[in-house]
Amino acid sequence: MGPIFMALFLVVGWGAFAYSALRRWKLMMVGAPADRCDQPGKRLSSALRYAFGQLRMPRYPASGWAHILVFVGFLVLLLRSLMLWGRGFWEPFDLWILGTDNGLGQAYAFLKDFFAVLVIIGALIFLYLRAVKKLPRLTHSTEALIILLIILVMMVADILYDGAAIAQHTEGAVAFAAYEPAGSATAIVLDGMSDGTLGCLKHVGFWTHSALVLIFLNLLPYSKHFHVITAIPNVYLRSLDPPGKLPNLDDIEGMLEREETLGIKRINQFSWKSILDFYTCTECGRCSDQCPAHTTGKKLSPKHFTTDLRNFLYKHEKDLVAAKANGNGSDEGEVPEHDKDLVDGVIDPEVLWACTTCRACEEECPVFISYVDKIVDMRRYLVQERSEFPNELQAAFRGLETNANPWSFPAEDRTAWAEGLDVKTIAERPEAEVLFWVGCAPAFDERAKKVTRATAKLMQKAGIDFATLGTEEQCTGDVARRAGNEFLFQMLAQANVELLNGYGVDKKKIVTTCPHCLNTLANEYSDFGGNYEVIHHTTFLSELVKQGKLKPTKPLAKKVVYHDSCYLGRYNEVYDAPRDALRSIPGLSLVEPEATRDRGMCCGAGGAQMFKEEEEGDERVSNVRTQQLLDTGADVISSACPFCQRMLTDGLADKEKEEMPQLDLAEMLLESIDGEA
Q1: What is the structure's pLDDT at 124?
Q2: 100 Cβ partners below 8 Å, 6+ apart?
Q3: Which domains, and CATH codes, for the chain?
Q4: Which letter does DSSP use for residue 564 in this model?
Q5: pLDDT of 471-494, one tens digit each?
Q6: According to the 3-state scheme, what is the secondary structure of 107-174?
Q7: Euclidean distance between CA atoms 168 and 170, whole angstroms
Q8: Which residues pair with 662 in a beta bridge?
Q9: Per-residue pLDDT reduced to its tens digit, 596-641
Q10: Does an H or E element contain 583, and which?
């Protein structure tokens, strides 16, 4: 009966899984098209490093290493499950030449035992974190505990099967075998039992392990552990665009003519890859644990944002799949439940507007789920279809439309910062090697102007042939795009690209003091025909110091803490250059806050937050970040973004620390070179 039972067991188990997998596939395919088949070599490399190599897991050491133990153990034990299923038909079966009577088989037997024990250790760590420590970031459920118990029982059953089989088939006393440590050690414990008892234990271990593998497999598509199947393809299929590049709404005017939705209104307007993201969420809570909005008590939780959309998707699976089969059409009359607006119905608008687009969530996610693109897509719908957005943004939109800057300053004021510096415009000096893209805040904000002037002076001292656009410069549109006003962004982007290309800037180098300008010019203008080499001023100045064109000599006896701008750091991976330049200043000592580099906390200004009131919460993001910087005991806070500088200034005021200097690298470097303030 064994072979018949095993055959029936495998057919039923795999058949049930095939049915479930097909259901999930059909549901995923209700999503919009997405092209993720480009650059296979780069995709494979990414999957090997992050999916198989688990590079992001140890960022949370205890759970990370436990996960690595379980993951690698499952890979090793996959062959073991196949071997056991084969033995259900013919007991001596060994896969290929993995019998324990040869070297290769003994090597695998050792690995199998070794990793079975490690999987047990990993599962016990997970049980401790969930049942004893009860980490707040985790989603605590009975399902998770059941899955962990299944894993533990699978491993114990496998070891029990080996131990009973070894004891049953060994004549005389059982000896410890180094190539099968767990199995032989168990056999020693079982030695002396009757042949019938050992045979019973062997069958219990065999069928328990063999059955639980298939039971576990069939639970996956209906639980958060679906990521066991979807994580590797999700990493492979992730976007390979620069992190700071948002997807375009192509042909907006055509979309309006065809009455297509601008942004995401319904669940099936997300791409199939976004739905794969929903499937892959492990509910580990790392994203929300790092989210500045969530940690300061706002309604936004990236984890819950994803799971709420996934739950809605699952709830309306039948209707969505049927609608897809019918061409997504619906009868006249009442809008079906699965077709209703996600905003309000599933996602609170306050959740969307609390996001600072800092990408802390995306940097932390071990399976590369994206959040910012989804949130901005839903903002696009709110702004462009429903005209619903925070009132304060109206002034910024109006200023961008009429004066090409969010504060509505007249264009002639753009050059006021350069008074007395003899800075040329590119119209006056078209052969200039470098275009100094000033940006709106560095041109109009009184505090930011000092950074702009210091940067210009340093370039002059270094003999850099540079020019600006002068009054012709317009906002890059970053604020409009992140706020969801894609039409306004594209209008500004197209005008800027036409202007820049007209001056041949695609053959020059662009330097800017604003990370938001850097990101937009470098990563997003390529979609509009603008391909530019863009460098942040901290990187540019650091290079000038290394080249000896700038020589800081005056000691500055200051203890400085450097704040990483999200759009410079996580978006464009600029971490070392600002620190290298600061360390080049004699007498200056650099200290780091606890949250630093790619885990640095957002200042609270990104995602158009600079131009609106912060959502209600326990604390302001800027105040929390300011306190983190103050806790280092530094004498000076150094930032490299005009938005960050403004938010940290507000934070210092709230902490009654207005006397605390907040200086840009350019200002300190200039002071060290010739004593200017």
Answers
A1: 96
A2: 106, 109, 179, 180
A3: 34-234 (1.20.950), 252-384 (1.10.1060)
A4: P
A5: 999 999 999 999 999 999 999 999
A6: HHHHHHHHHHHHHHHHHHHHHHHHHHCCCCCCCCCHHHHHHHHHHHHHHHHHHHHHHHHHHHCCCCCC
A7: 6
A8: 637
A9: 999 999 999 999 999 999 999 999 999 999 999 999 999 999 999 9
A10: helix 576-583
